[in-house]
Amino acid sequence: MSTSLITTLSEKDLIELRSAKKKMEEIGWAMKGLNRIGGVLETGIDKLPQKQQKWLQQLAHKVLHTVVKANLKTMKKGKTKAAPSNRTYKALVTSSGIVGGAFGATAFAVDLTVATKFMMRSIMDIARSEGEDLSSYDTQLACLQVLALGGKSKHDDNLDTGYYATRVALSSAVKNATSYASKHGMGAVLQGSNNTLMKLIGAIASRFSIQVSEKFVAQAIPVIGAAGGGSVNLAFINHFQNMAKAHFTIRRLERKYGEAMIKGAYEGLEING
Fold first, then answer.
1. 215 Cβ partners below 8 Å, 6+ apart?
2. Verdict on whether the full-model pTM lies above 0.70
3. Are the CB atoms for 234 and 94 separated by under 8 Å?
4. DSSP characters for 181-245?
């Protein structure tokens, strides 16, 4: 890292940026949180029929649309800087997984919808704790972007999953959706199927569906059961809480130092271990 960046960023901010990058570059949630069945997951995902893969992609899109309607439209200003209630949301998502796990793959769509709704609430909570204004359209869409941050996985070889690369890939859709929402309001943006927000949801869903596929295969394993379903969901939300913490830490530092400065520092940091 250049001397200028070292002298510009405080020691505390450098530590936070390093921690954020480490979170962003960790392996995917399933391989990390479910390493005992990792081999089964990899084999299962690779063997998913094309029809089922398409269904999972469509489900990811539908769930995101539902979550947007349930959460983004109702976002209100709240107290900033309060510690996020991560444990509460982990308990809620884990409970959903326990119920879903008891019924296996047949309850997957319902479980995914419930789990993703609570995950988005948790992401919003983390955003607020990092000083974000939840009434801002930019913040609302930044919360949605977290679900595109999947970590490293062998199943995302066709996507550039680097943090800033992901933001660049979504930047045009985010800019258009923010501009439209600013003019017409989030309520208007949520109407119809051929508007800027739907295009953004589609772009995010294509990335989120990778995580959805891993979750589906994990819950479809017969030995998983109710307790295992809870473990799958706990790993799922733990991953996205980490992504949210890293994402909004970086955004906070960008507000302080400027995006170019933080991007340069981020890309120059070496992460060991």
1. 30, 108, 112, 232, 233, 236
2. yes
3. yes
4. HHHH-HHHHTSSSSSHHHHHHHHHHHHHHHHHHHHHHHHHSTTTHHHHHHHHHHHHHHHHHHHHH
Mean pLDDT of 106-135: 90
Residue 57's pLDDT band (cuts 50, 70, 90)? confident
CB 21 within 8 A of CB 149: no
Are 215 and 105 in contact by the 8 Å Cβ rule? The answer is no
Length of the chain in terms of residues written: 273
Tokens of 156: 């995302």
Report the run of H or E that residue 40 belongs to, with start and end: helix 38-46
Say which residues have a Cβ less than 8 Å from residue 13's Cβ, sequence separation at least 6: 253, 256, 257
Give counts: helices (H), strands (E), the chain. Answer: 13, 0
Q: Which two tokens stand for residue 75?
A: 């976002």
**How many angstroms separate the most distant Cα atoms in the chain?**
57
Return contacts of 136-140, CB within 8 angstroms, 24+ apart.
137/177, 137/178, 137/181, 137/182, 137/186, 138/178, 140/72, 140/75, 140/181, 140/186
Residue 59 structure tokens? 């489900």
- Give the model's confidence band at 52: pLDDT under 50 very low, under 70 low, under 90 confident, else very high: confident
Residue at token pair 């997957």: 108
| Residue 170 clears pLDDT 80, i.e. is over it | yes
Beta bridge partners of 27: 152
SS3 assignment, position 152: strand
Structure letter (DSSP) for residue 134: T
pLDDT band, very low/low/confident/very high, at 80 (cuts 50, 70, 90): low
User: What pLDDT is recorded for position 194?
Assistant: 52
Q: Please list the residues that pair with 152 across neighbouring strands.
A: 27
